[in-house]
Design goal:
The structure holds two protein chains of two kinds.
Chain A lengths: L1 E4 H18 L6 E6 L2 H17 L5 E4 L30 E9 L3 H13 L4 E10 L10 E6 L5 E6 L8 E6 L6
Parallel strand pairs in A: 2-3, 2-4, 4-5, 5-6
Antiparallel strand pairs in A: 1-8, 7-8
Helix pairs in contact in A: 1-2
Chain B lengths: L15 H17 L14 E6 L5 H12 L3 E6 L11 H10 L4 E6 L4 H8 L3 E7 L5 H15 L6 E5 L6 H12 L3 E5 L15 E3 L2 H5 L4 E4 L15 H8 L3 H4 L7 E3 L12 H4 L6 H20 L5
Classes of the chains: A alpha/beta, B alpha/beta.
Chain lengths: 179, 308
Amino acid sequence: MKIMNLEEIERVLKRLCQKFLSKNENLDGLIVVGIQRRGAVLAERISKLIKDIKGQKVPVGTLDINLYRDDLSRISYQPVIRSTNIPFSIDDKHVLLVDDVLYTGRTVRAALDALLDLGRPKKIELMVLLDRNCRELPIQADYTGKKIILSSDKMVEVKLREVDDREEVVVLKRGEDEI
Amino acid sequence: MRFERKDLLDLRSLSAEEINLILNTAASFREVLERPIKKVPTLRGKTIANLFFEPSTRTRLSFELSAKRLNADIVNFSSSTSSVLKGESLLDTARNIVAMKVDALVVRHSSPGVSHFLAQKLPVSIINAGDGAHEHPTQGLLDLYSIRERKGNIANLNVAIIGDIAHSRVARSDIWGLNKMGARVRVCGPPTLIPKDIEKLGVELTYSIEEALLDCDVVIMLRIQRERQKVSLVPSLQEYRDFFSLNREKLKLAKPDVLIMHPGPVNRGVEIPAKIADSRQSIILNQVTNGIAVRMAVLYLLLVHSSR
């Protein structure tokens, strides 16, 4: 079941940016870090939107959290390690961490550990396109695009045109095709 | 794609896809080495044992650091200070270490096939860190990685491997790996140090270093492994140097951007003059750094799974 299309995704991202900018006048020291893979795509877009609105360029980095997962000894597959590319110091910076879906909170926990290994930021905030229920850790987003409540047999899939052949958010039943 | 193997024993049996997966994974680990905190928690709780039946500094230390960068525990065993001297067999020694609940053994031994033998007998992952003159797969992989890092690609490059081919496990791993990645490989050395039928591995053979260097993109120099020679196979080091050492004059035959590599230990002034070993074209120390990233990738790919 499709719950967002391209226009809605773009509208939600714009609103997220405006919400962020209304709370943050001064963008000096801000960096946007996206969690691989689709969070990284969204981070690029957020940075571009901020530049369009405020005319200020915000550095973007990408973070791969697989090396920090807490389930590496349990999962049956082998995660592909993508690159972490944050070619600047994050010490004393304001980090806006971006991901597509906030679900159990375990990815964000891993991302926080990964970030703290890279330096000591002044502040880390979390921005997500979607927040679905079923949290397993006490983690919440500071900026949420859309909230949805799903039963645990459902999963959300975000497709973005930069890395997928289409752009949409769909809800799938676990282990089945689209419903 | 997934890396489905229990062990890393040689490059001969790896596919180009598997090699690419290892190199791509290594590229991600390379970044970790540039961080202020050069450590990730990925292999927390895993235990690795270094089993070295032959002397080594670089490889043993490299595996040790790789494991530590991934938060695994690593213990070292060397035959000179062990019960091997009391007559314990290789398999018994290995079984005892496995009984201490280790997840992987990194094995170096002077006999070819020791790692393959242990891999068949033991349930843990075996990584071949050099078996006689057979193979040294992680060195082969780090050579491929270092070439790819500088040249962008390995396919269609002219690569010359020069020196003591007969006693070199690095040469064998390099030949398998380079051929699978589409490079053109030439080997060169004195006839006494070239194994019979080496051309069957898909390389060009020449006894002239000038021919080997002509239009070369990469040159891998090897040292003479005197400790492995039961009889003297070169008349004198002086004569060897005259015919097979690199020098500026000979290097002009290669492409201007030729890379100079060496697996170490370097015998300065024998196979390679100090000036060339330290020159801008030499990536000998990059190879050492990349070795850590490649070994981290191998440990990760072998040890992160649960289905096996």
